[in-house]
Amino acid sequence: VPAVQPFADRLAGLVAERSSSVVLGLDPDPAALWPGAVESAAAKGSVAERTADAVARHCTAAIDAAGSACVAVKLQLACFERLGAPGWAALGETAGAARAAGLLVIADGKRGDVPVTARAYAQGLVGEAVGPFGPVAGLGADAFTANPLLGADSLEPLVAAARDHGAACFCLVRTSNPGADAFQDVAAPDAPLHEKLARMVDELGAETIGATGLSAVGAVVGATRPGLLERLRELMPHAIFLLPGVGAQGGTVEGLAPAFSAGPAAALVTASRSIVDAHVESGGDPAAAAAKSAEALRAAAWAVADGS
Amino acid sequence: VPAVQPFADRLAGLVAERSSSVVLGLDPDPAALWPGAVESAAAKGSVAERTADAVARHCTAAIDAAGSACVAVKLQLACFERLGAPGWAALGETAGAARAAGLLVIADGKRGDVPVTARAYAQGLVGEAVGPFGPVAGLGADAFTANPLLGADSLEPLVAAARDHGAACFCLVRTSNPGADAFQDVAAPDAPLHEKLARMVDELGAETIGATGLSAVGAVVGATRPGLLERLRELMPHAIFLLPGVGAQGGTVEGLAPAFSAGPAAALVTASRSIVDAHVESGGDPAAAAAKSAEALRAAAWAVADGS
Predict the structure, then answer these.
(1) Contacting residues of A for B196, CB less than 8 Å apart
(2) Which of A27, A78, A129 sits opposite B30 (nearest CB)?
(3) Which of A181, B3, B148, B235 stands the most exposed, by the fewest C-beta atoms within 10 Å?
(4) How many residue pairs bridge chain A and chain B with CB atoms within 8 Å of each other?
(5) Across the 308 residues of chain B, what is the mean pLDDT of every consecutive 10-residue run?
């Protein structure tokens, strides 16, 4: 009996319970926070501390408003770490608010480095650091994103840590930005580079497949190129797909069916601006607009996820 | 007249002044700190705070011991962020100690993400975040490393921020770990992938070439594969090469001459464990061993850098 329940099992339970495949992306921009978060932020402390407090309140409010339609949050580490130590504290606070709302926490930092450094990243994300005064707990994320450019040896410590802590490692395979084609689609002798990455994801995850048939090594695949999904699912039959790019970046849920062919928990649809900034287009209360947008995405995605 | 002096100009001045091309790599492992740093660490605070304080003292002691033989420090962000908010504070403190010792600060985080997120990383590394209570200053690094897997659009905000702040962006081209060959050396139709990355580095840097003939877009090239250096220098005549892998990873300075063919400030030799952990093999005082190791590397690297 494993000491910890694998990520895929926990995710599958939540997906079924909430009839949802939606991940709430939190990329807080201090210049575009919900007004209530700024008004209620701490009046004391440094500018960095007050800004970070406003960021934490903004994220907590978004979780309160939209979380019940979602199964996880995806926290964009760049948006927290630009505020230094107070930003890193706000990251922990936001992760705690997400857990309290029953959501899984995906730390989106796209880390990747040589093996010794990858172990340090793993300690910070899902493990703990060993030191002279006792262990120092990391963020305690349920999953994280990783950049595979450095190769399999750079990912192995991340995958091992994920497996040991019942977490998941989502490797970039084909990202959602326009410039991705210049490298990720380069034709290697046998196949495009993203197919090489997909094969590596499948191999790295082979030893971690649980009762759900899903592994602890997932894949980030942009929803902006739905034409690639069928082939990528074929190459990674056990991987959970994390699908950014729906909404603001132009992807639609209707094109995502191949990602769900391995089951309703086999893919996650992430949306950030289209939920948190919904009020910018619709007007009215940010929380109400976010709740409405998240529920609409949940229903649309579930029709695709449950139908396949 | 530019408001800020370009990184390459500042580096060239330091290299000439110190007759050095050495970068002191700081990858602090809380379980292997210098004994004096642990003994003098704060006795109060949380375990994370006390550990982070010991890390900052360790790094400061290493800078005091070895810094005068070097021109820059390379701070491994993973090793600080695994200690959470206190670790991020220790990172800032270590950067301050390096600046006080006249060293440039290279933030080694290998960040890379879609353009909107890349802008957030740039704010944290070399710029400032705009928020409701005023600007929040980032780390203020002189340079940083970046992962180019997402393509040119993901790097452009990083390069623009580097240029505007007189900093440099070092893109991964060919890393020093054994697994790097599986992707970075893949044969695309015309050339290996690392050559495609090299061409992108050259293009991204073209608009930033200063009086030294060097650009604000550098390249991380592992010293473990010296056979690639000549071709990579040909493809990137204006890039500063950041060369990890000397010492513990098996690279030698003698093989690095092609990197210096564009001048003594055109390449930087980074060493971490071989300096900071020199006492583990040699015995004796860690500071004395680090000073001796750094000076030996300075002399060996300068013979190569100045001779070409």
Answers:
(1) 182-183, 186
(2) A129
(3) B3
(4) 246
(5) 83 98 98 97 95 98 98 98 98 98 98 97 98 97 98 97 98 93 84 94 96 96 92 98 87 92 96 96 95 97 88
